[in-house]
Write a structure and sequence with these properties.
The complex is a heterodimer. Chain A is an alpha+beta fold. Chain A has 17 helices and 15 strands. Chain B is an alpha/beta fold. In chain B, strands 1, 2, 3, 4, 7, 14 and 15 form a 7-stranded mixed beta sheet that branches. Chain B has a 4-stranded mixed beta sheet with strand order 9-12-8-13. Classes of the chains: A alpha+beta, B alpha/beta. At the A-B interface, α1, α4, α5, α6 and β10 of A face α1, α4, α12, α16 and α17 of B.
């Protein structure tokens, strides 16, 4: 009984949290996440309340999280790749149209009014205006203002000031300030304009600047009678004048075509791509070699204090990369870094770590080696444990030396378990934006290059420069780039997996 | 039945908290931790007088712009933000800011450069409170009188420079590469970033970084490195730590470096950047101010708050005390003008140029930095490096 109650209370809390999140999403217009959330919420209730759906209790949390954290971002990314979403085009069309509809201009010689506001018990407002031009008095009636005689008996005076109109009491300055958010929206028709709030000391005549024709989907400038039609998410006139802001809209394959046609992409592409490839390959190779060597050493049971060494060697993996990369940046500083100080004292050489393309690449590989070897060491240590010791005994009896034992037993057996992880590591380093961005930022630049690509830029860091270093942030463009990079890595990984399949088949024959 | 009841109770409790999030009639301001106490105080005074609640939400300075871009369109976000003028371009073209109409009548009370910086497409989008520019910061114990000309500067620098002891006379991080700090070199002989259209707005396709003047300025920077006065690639951290240790005579940077140096016991002075062959080098001017979200439900209230409570001498002086940079509000500036540090920076601000706020500026930073790095450390000719940079910028922002 208590267990049942507990279950229902927990479910109630979860449902409430879910609904609370759903309301937020509803307001923000996050329809995709909302759909997943509602699906998950219904599933949760079914799973917990129905006896038949018992196994779902264990599956469902995983599925929902998979949907939210993996599937949804992918769909979102693909969706954005076909949009113009970015600086200048971040609002929805409705929001942009409503911004234009809320633009007013002051016609020449726009009449100004002093005002007093009166309020009845229901909270309705009445405004008394005195024109600064003609000294005429006007009173708001419904949606317009009408001329009023200040001696009208409905105006109640006290000490020469109007304190009441019918049952409307005069509002004090403080009351006006407190209700400004309502007062700012008042607008009364007057001649062919609107009398609107301008500041706490005056109202003024304004005219709306734009009108939107929903039937033709056009925006008309009422001042100039110019007609603007939406082109790629921006209202554009026939002579090419564009109205800012634009709105986010689907633009088909425009982003992809822009990437492929852009000479700044195609120009340095081969060079950037080959460095990316070499970088990923060398990163995996160096970290794996060092990691494996250390793992074999640490796996030797005759080594004393090996648990201490192991703990110390894992440290680079534990320190956040953001911190250690920036520290490395300081250590490698050409004129003031410790590393060059040491090199200068010992060999009297000064290495231009970040100024020379070759040394910048070496610096990157050294830092990535430092960051990456503990991971390789950890997985190698695990894999080493799983190799049966009988194999070594048999080999020793057959007279195999230590090198031969490594070459013929350890390495092939390790590769069976580690190859997929190495491919994963390759794909990770292929996109290792953090190290490049924080250590060299793609620098040094290439002499004579007319693109922003630097000597150490990899695909992801270069395209980041293109998407976010042009005119603001081009999210749609960036999403399209990420899809293209995904296709490249996907192809390479597919080839790699074929290769490992062969390795596995080899392993089975062993 | 009981099950349903429990679930319903939970719903209503949580629903209640959601509906409270209505905003009309309340002011919400986003600011960073430095200015939060000042604005909060001001908010309390305002609430006391008018009964209008003012909430101040703290956010790191760098996050405010991007978060406004997400929160505003979602119907959330603040009425007012405190930020830098160079955010204007991206915020305005995306439709996130509301122009401040009342500033047209008040602009006479503010330093002109500050108002210009917050003007975009003919409209004023911000109420400025602080201005900043880099200047010649010097250690009075090493350099008793600051140099008036670059020749004097080089003479002093030569005397004080002993690289083997890590002692330097004059350091600029411009060659790091740091385009922001290199700007006075480029403007010394008339280089510029963007030219102007006849209506006074910036023309993103007229880029003056490869003009004769800009190239001459680049050679000036290069000559400092070649003469062994300025070590190439020195960065801000190294520079300030050496300066704070009393090992550098003069550095070229902004007010953000003064606090640390004073704390380290350095006798700090600030002077105008020395003239070059009789020409005045012009630094970038950055301006901080209040901006209004286009998605505010309290535009009139926010405008009233800005006009009658922020644009006052007391508030402006309180903001100055929280972060001592030259005030943009004239009465406040006069009040603190006797402070020698403020006075020194104000002289540089007076000749400075507002950092361009059009979105195309982000394309300029990368290419410009590349060019500086190429001619300072990779031995490429400045004219070639700069003309390549300009071609690259024009391609990136699609000028034909």
């Amino acid at each position: 009984m208590i267990k049942n109650w507990l279950k229902i209370i927990i479910l109630g809390v979860l449902d409430a949290l879910g609904i609370w999140a759903a309301i937020g999403l509803l307001q923000a217009g996050g329809w995709g996440v909302l759909a997943v959330l509602i699906f998950g919420l219904i599933g949760l209730n079914v799973a917990l309340l129905s006896k038949k759906a018992y196994p779902l209790r264990y599956l469902l949390p995983g599925l929902v999280l998979f949907g939210l954290m993996v599937v949804y971002p992918i769909i979102y990314n693909i969706n954005i790749a076909f949009m113009n979403y970015g600086t200048g085009n971040i609002l929805s069309k409705t929001q942009v149209i409503s911004q234009f509809m809320n633009k007013y201009y002051q016609p020449e010689g726009s009449e100004r009014f002093l005002f007093q506001i009166f309020r009845n018990k229901k909270g309705d407002l009445k405004v008394l205006f005195i024109s600064k031009v003609s000294n005429e008095a006007y009173l708001s009636v419904g949606d317009h203002i009408e001329s009023v005689d200040l001696h009208n008996p409905s105006l109640i005076y006290k000490n020469g000031e109007i304190i009441r109109i019918d049952d409307y009491e005069k509002m004090s300055m403080i009351q006006i300030i407190q209700n400004l958010s309502k007062i700012q929206n008042l607008a009364f028709k007057y001649n062919d304009g609107l009398v609107k709030f301008r500041s706490v000391s005056e109202f003024r005549v304004y005219k709306p600047q734009y009108s939107y024709n929903g039937e033709h989907n056009t925006l008309i400038d009422l001042k100039t009678n110019k007609v603007y039609k939406p082109i790629n998410g921006t209202f554009t006139s026939s002579d090419g004048e564009q109205l800012s802001p634009g709105f986010r809209d689907y633009v088909g394959f425009k982003n992809f075509i822009d990437i492929l046609r852009n000479p700044q992409v195609s120009g340095p592409f081969i060079r950037v791509f080959s460095w990316t490839f070499i970088w990923a390959l060398l990163s995996v190779f160096t970290t794996f070699t060092l990691g494996l060597t250390l793992a074999i050493l640490l796996n030797d049971s005759t080594l004393r204090l090996r648990y201490l060494y192991r703990t110390l060697l894992i440290l680079p993996y534990v320190v956040p990369g953001f911190i250690s990369i920036l520290i490395w940046r300081g250590l490698l500083n050409t004129n003031f870094g410790v590393i060059n100080d040491v090199l200068q004292n010992l060999f009297s050489v000064k290495v231009p770590w970040f100024q020379d393309p070759f040394w910048a690449k070496v610096a990157l590989l050294i830092v990535n080696l430092w960051l990456g070897f503990p991971y390789m060491m950890l997985i190698s240590l695990g894999a080493l444990q799983s190799i049966p010791s009988e194999l070594y005994e048999a080999a020793r009896i057959d007279g195999a030396g230590s090198w031969q034992r490594f070459y013929s037993i350890t390495f092939p057996l390790l590769m069976i378990t580690l190859a997929p992880l190495l491919i994963g590591s390759f794909a990770f380093n292929f996109n290792n934006f953090t190290v490049i961005y924080l250590l060299t930022g793609g620098q040094p630049p290439i002499p004579g290059s007319q693109t922003p690509a630097g000597a150490t830029d990899i695909l992801i860091s270069y395209t980041y420069k293109l998407a976010f270093g042009g005119a603001g942030s081009q999210y749609g463009y960036a999403a399209a780039i990420s899809i293209i990079i995904f296709l490249i890595i996907g192809t390479i990984s597919a080839f790699n997996f074929r290769f490992t399949k062969r390795l596995e088949e080899m392993g089975e024959n062993l | 039945m009981k099950k349903l009841l429990v679930i319903l109770v939970c719903f209503t409790v949580l629903l209640g908290t959601v509906i409270l999030a209505s905003e009309a009639g309340k002011l919400l301001i986003w600011t960073d931790e430095v200015r939060k106490p000042t604005i909060e105080n001001l908010g309390k005074q305002f609430t006391k007088l008018y009964g209008v609640p003012v909430t101040v939400q703290e956010m790191s300075f760098g996050d405010i712009r991007d978060k406004l871009g997400v929160a505003g369109p979602a119907g959330k976000g603040p009425d007012l933000i405190i930020g830098a003028h160079d955010w204007l371009g991206q915020l305005v073209v995306s439709g996130l800011l509301e122009p401040l109409e009342f500033m047209q009548e008040m602009k006479g009370k503010f330093v002109k450069t500050a108002v210009d910086a917050f003007t975009y497409g003919g409209k004023i989008y911000g109420l400025p409170f602080a201005t900043e520019a880099i200047g010649l910061i010097y250690n009075k114990d090493l350099v008793p009188t600051p140099p008036k000309t670059f020749k004097e500067l080089e003479a002093i620098a030569k005397k004080l420079t002993h690289p083997e002891k890590k002692e330097y006379g004059f350091i600029t991080q411009a060659s790091q590469p740091d385009p922001y700090h290199s700007f006075p070199f480029f403007t010394a002989y008339g280089g510029y970033i963007f030219g102007k259209n006849p209506d006074g707005t910036l023309n993103p396709c007229d880029i003056g970084l490869d003009t004769k003047g800009a190239v001459k300025g680049a050679y000036l920077l290069l000559s400092l490195i070649k003469k062994g006065l300025v070590p190439e690639g020195i960065d801000y951290q190294t520079m300030t730590s050496l300066f704070n240790a009393g090992k550098i005579g003069m550095i070229l940077t902004g007010p953000w470096a003064v606090g640390g140096a004073v704390k380290s016991g350095i006798n700090v002075g600030v002077a105008k950047i020395p003239t070059v062959d009789g020409n005045t080098p012009r630094p970038f001017v950055g301006v901080q101010g209040f901006m209004m979200s286009n998605f505010s439900k309290n535009k009139a209230l926010a405008a009233f708050f800005l006009k009658d409570y922020v644009a006052t001498k007391d508030t402006m002086l309180a903001l100055y005390k929280a972060d001592p940079r030259a005030p943009a509000f004239k009465p406040a500036l006069t009040a603190v003008a006797q402070d020698p540090i403020v006075k020194g920076f104000a002289e540089n601000i007076a000749v400075g140029i507002p950092m361009p706020s059009i979105p195309q500026m982000s394309a300029v930073w990368t290419a410009w930095a590349n060019a500086i790095s190429l001619f300072c450390t990779q031995k490429e000719a400045p004219e070639k490096a700069l003309s390549d940079a300009v071609i690259s910028i024009k391609k990136t922002i699609k000028c034909h």
